[in-house]
Amino acid sequence: MPALTEELKHELADANQEFRKLLKDHHERERRLAELASKTYLSVDEEVEEKRLKKEKLQLKDRMEEIAREHRARVSAH
Description:
The protein has helices at 6-15, 17-37, 44-77. It is mainly alpha-helical. The longest helix has 34 residues, at 44-77. The protein is elongated and about 55 Å long.
């Protein structure tokens, strides 16, 4: 399966409102995970948050990949 390239991300973000929101949400979780990763020590609550964010980020990426696959199928069908 081809990777979700930056070019395809931009194309889908321009054309697909759901993809645009997923991408935004993915970046927000990525930003927060980077904040947590920069800390020397995480509280128990922060560890729980980190695990939750990683799961959510993966779910968002899975849905973005699904949208990209659907897009590729439509494009190759024409």
